[in-house]
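User: Fold this, then the next.

Assistant: Folding the first:
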Amino acid sequence: MKPSIRIASGQGFWGDLIDAPFYQVTEGQIDYLVMDYLAEVTMSILRKQQKKRPEMGYASDIPSLMERILPVCIEKKIKIITNGGGVNPIACAEAVKKVALKLGIKNLKIGVVSGDDILEEIDALKAKGEALKNMETGESIETVQLKLESANVYFGAQPIVEALRGGADIVITGRTTDTGLTLAPMVYEFDWSFEDYNKMAIGTIAGHILECGAQATGGNFLGNWQDVPNFERIGFPIAEAHPDGKVYITKHESLGGMVTFDTVAEQLVYEIGNPVEYITPDCVADFSSIHLQDEGNNRVLLYGVEGKEATEFYKVSCAYSDGYVSSGTLTYSWPQAATKAKKAAEILKNRLQLLNLSFDEMNAEFIGLNACHGPLAPRLDEDQINEVMLRFSVRSKDFAPVERFGREIAPLVLTGPPAVTGFAGGRPKPSEVVAYWPALLRKSMVTPIVSFVTLGEE
């Protein structure tokens, strides 16, 4: 058993800093690189891509990233774990295999975790008594079933551990919890029992700290953010885990950012819901039991976390088509910028009504005035405001009114308030609204599938 392992966050979402994984494997010593690519809506985006090109459906920048980091990871014996396989993890593994062959790599074993996609199994599951009703509203899934774009179960750390025990150098999964990516190496390296709920909880919370990348090292930090050094090469967090369950959050010293009690604590309260029952497939973690200790020098100790047995359910993330949305913007300048923008919104709304266009929602935002804080924003004197951007949005189940709205923005330039600019790029185009449907599914109804793609000898 190793005395400790270093698990480095490489991506907080699909589209995060493309150089971050490279920095993590080259700027210091780590044992694992974990990369989280999947937000809830990402699965539906990947499904649409797969419909157009069946060989796709995964985070498309993974192959080019692997071309940069694979030689380093093999030389340093760094294992890679990512849920960037999206809705097609096997295809993603095959793409990585092609990269390895191109680089002349002789031996590589890629573990693939699949089985989370239940889109084609909805009817069969309903027949077995699985309601898959909306967790928040209680609605029946039948109200949206015909519009479903994706339906994926959140697996946890267990199938990743199985892949690591099978000798995988890289593990590529579909919809896996963000926290499971970090917990799995600890279970594998330290031979933790999945029934040791306190260990499961501390690994889960370490994963929660790592899951958003640099948000734990000073990015998006509400505290003394101006003291965060070198944003240009900000370091992503690293969890230095020990067999006894202590975890130190740190980063590479050569990179920017900072790890303090405050940066870690702020990340801990991100998207947690009930703090005493943070439910994952691996355990139920109690955030109120967390102990943090700032050790200085970009090291924060995490310890003493308590957990309970996991529930009998997996969470299911579904996405469905829910109409169309469009937005257009115009900028009004001093004097009376806010008055002009508000009048323009009123004119536009009245014109849409005169056209008998029906929308589920219309919304006017006044950016530079109160768009972020709404009624809580302080009232400003008109003379204090240099410019205000009007952003007007509409939403409808039907395409036609949303498309027609797009023709009404440009005319405001010459048929509305004066001193207007900022119209460019042509008419606003409708885009599809993808809505989220969270549900529960008994774990006995679905089984993770672990397979391998290999180069060289077994």
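Now the next one, as you asked:
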Amino acid sequence: MTQSNKPAAHEYAAWILAVSAIVFVLKWHLLPALIAGLLVYELVHALSPLFGKHLSNGRAKGMAVALVVLFVLGAIAAAVFGLLAFMRSEGGSLPALLAKMAEILDGSRSALPEWLREMLPNTADSLREGATRWLREHAAELQLIGQETGHMLAHVLIGMVIGGMVSVREACAGGSRKPLAEALAERVFRMGEAFRRVVFAQVRISALNTLFTALYLAVALPLFGVHLPLSKTLVVVTFIAGLLPVIGNLISNTIIFVVSLAHSPGVAISSLAFLVVIHKLEYFLNARIVGAQIRAKAWELLTAMLVMESAFGLAGLVAAPVCYAWLKDELTTRGQI
């Protein structure tokens, strides 16, 4: 139902605080923690009715939600270890994939155009020497990247714990809130709803993209006698990269194209053509699925992504669909659009 009454002062304060919090998260690189927390929060809310529908008091429901939190955290950890075991079943891992790509590029020099061969090192030894020299020159930057990765993983873990704690606290909470607290809780609820609609839609899109890629790598190419190395690893990378808007496609496409060079340039071109067609289809599905979830046109999403990327970089690009869905939901509820 659309509300037409004028917002109260505490509602304005809640909106200002919510927008300020989002800007702070994006500026200070806390987006991984926010995403992890919202993911656990939404998964708990989706699964808790299975445990708590027969419980009447808040304490019993809180115990049920706590069990769901442990289940969600365990399931996420099991999924990570399962993906690693799946890739290693063919001797694959991210370092192995990168090493294989370097080996393929080195072995494919004779089949590459002259202008491209001139840009590459002459031998594997020169490539290795150049990589060693680059690592030595950028040791400080690489150390910083390692530290940032450790910080990001810590933020993700803390975000997951906070999401679980908020879910349990919400289940056990009783009584009424003060006006500002109620308005802030409403903003959090709407942000969570926007996150659920956008992210779960993106997971479906990435799953479809991964299915098509797996059929191409494991079915279509073998029918023509082409067996690419590390195909399982490529499927896993395609799914994980597909969760990132825009840049994820570039990552997975580049990796599959380079690995396809292991067979021949013709197979690499065929793979590139297939990926272009699939991702054109994916853009259509993205506009249809995500747009339908937040009732937005494709141009609205693209504009939001452009603005947020310009303001906050990659973090803004990732957060743009969720933030735009939340903003549009707030304005629609107030009857402004």
